[in-house]
Structures are given as C-alpha cells and as structure tokens.
Hints:
Elements: H1 3-24, E1 38-40, E2 48-50, E3 58-60, E4 65-66, E5 69-70, E6 73-74, E7 78-79, E8 82-85, E9 88-91, E10 94-98, E11 106-108, E12 112-115, E13 119-123, E14 133-137, H2 142-149, E15 156-160, H3 162-169, H4 177-183, E16 190-194, E17 201-205, E18 210-212, E19 223-226, E20 235-241, E21 245-251, E22 259-265, E23 278-282, E24 291-296, E25 304-309, E26 318-325
Parallel strand pairs: 1-15, 15-16
Antiparallel strand pairs: 2-14, 3-13, 4-7, 5-6, 8-9, 10-11, 10-14, 12-13, 16-17, 17-18, 19-22, 20-21, 21-26, 22-25, 23-26, 24-25
Amino acid sequence: MNSTKLMAALGRIFTVLVALFCIGLTPAVAQPNLPPVSVYARAYAGWQLQGQAANTYSWNGAVCYYTPLQFTGLSPAFFDFSGSIAGSTVYNPVLIQDYGTPANSEIVTPTSTTNGASQCGFAGTVLNSHTTFVVQSGTVGLQEAVTAQAVGTTPRTVLLDPYWYSQVYALPGQPTPESIITAVKGATNVIIVDTTTSPSTQWRWTGSAYAATSLTGGSSAPTAAAGAAAGSGPTGPTNTGDGNTMSVALTTGTATTTGTLFTETWATSNAFLYPPSCYVWSSGTNSFTAFTYAVTYPSSTHALLTVTATSAPVASTAYAFKIVCN
C-alpha cells in the first residue's frame, strides 16, 4: 500500500474513533430531583441541631437543611423548620430535647422561620427555659416527609414502621402515634400508610386532617371493665378513641389490691382477627407504672387485653392510661 492510500485509511479510522468518542461523551439528559414515590417518615427525622446559646433558636450559616437517605437513595434536601403545600407555609413541629433538665423537653410548633445564607432558625411559643439542648423533629419526620411528598398531583405515600412508633413513644408529653398523624398538615395526593397493621392502614387527607380509611381494631373502642385491683366501687374505666388507639380513665374505689386492674374486650366482628400487639402506658397526673399487660384471643373469637397491677394502686385516685394496638 502506497503512502497516499495508507494516509486515507488512517484518516477514516480516526474519523470513526472521534465519532465514537463523541457519542460516549454525549451528556445525559438531566432528570428532575423529585422525591421517591414512597418514603419512610423516619428517614426525615435524622436531622439534629445543637443549641448555640441558652433559649436561642437560630444558627449561623445555612445549616438548617437535611437530606434524607431512603432505601432508593437520597431524597431532595429540605429546610428543617418549614415547607410549603399548595402554596401555603407548613411549619414543622420541633422537639427541643433539654439535656440539662430533661423534664423541660417539649415540642414546639414554629410560628415563623429564618432561612438565609448567614442565619437560619425559628421562633415560636416555648414554655420552658433551655440552656443545653438539641433541636430535632417533633413528629419523628412525619410532617417533613408529608410536605416533601406533596409535589404536584402524582399520588405518593409516606410509610410508618415499628421504628417510627418506638420513637413516638419516647416524645415528651406522651402523644400517641394517632394524635401525631391527625395533627399533620397534608395533601390529597399524599397517603400515609401504617405498615405495622395487617393489612396496612391507609390514612387519607380529608381537606382538614388525615383520617383512617380502615382500622384493623375497628372504629369503636373496645369494652372496658374494672378488675379486682381497682378496688370496691371504682368509677370507670371509660374509653375514648377507637379500636386501635384509645385513652382510658379509671378512678379506683376502696380496698384496692394487686391483680387485674382492667380489661379491654374487642368486638367479635369488624375488629382484630388476630391477637394484636399493644402498648400501654400511664398518661395522667397520677402516674401508675406498677403494672403489666398481655393480649390473648379467647376461644378464637375476639381480642382481650388484660392490664395487671403488680402493686396495689392508691384508693380513690384518678388514673389515666393510653393504649395503642396494631
């Protein structure tokens, strides 16, 4: 092959290589940074800000942003203290976790926020003094997740799991998971799915609050009955709530003792078809913690919760309990 033909052949090869190289360098089309269709609420609770000064809820620099890590990867970052749904500002309740005086820990809903390059923070009605503290999510990420998912009109879900429940039980003021869900600001395209129930319970936005489309324990609270440990002539127990979450009021009578304090019996239909998992805690001014509880399924017809006093409660005293069952 003469030099002219060789040079022509090399030229054609060079042209092909350049074309292939350019194809490889073609930039990918940018994709919008939208949230995943389904997210876990707890993933939005990972943010935490250390207090910089006593009773001061502002921070230097743009540090009030957090990027949740989902099972599908990273979700878009969000501002810790507020967001927007349908053009309206939504403030995220925050937990002020007081290290110096743990009893002063409280949940506060901001009334205004600051979100600038040099300073960020919030203002609101804070009841207690806080010297050494951290600020974190007051809904274990639920409000933050719902706000983040309320993008456009595409249906999206926020998932609740046992970890979310366990963190709710640790919040000050003893809110129930249901009380947090129903207080959240939402959107019609965002469904809250409680994966701890079987089948899962869906909570849908009614326009003013989230409401359960189905409750595995039924829409009515179970039937409460006092036991021997409540003494002679007790008042109650009385229930308020539904078959999954309820508050119980009981005023003991005289001659209190140990043993069964009270029972809760679910209906044989439209309620649990299996022994549910329940969590019971004392929630009143008169704290009573000397008790155990267990759930059975007598004769395979209905669920029965038995609360047993291991020490005699104080006679003629008003007690309050909260119960969550899934």
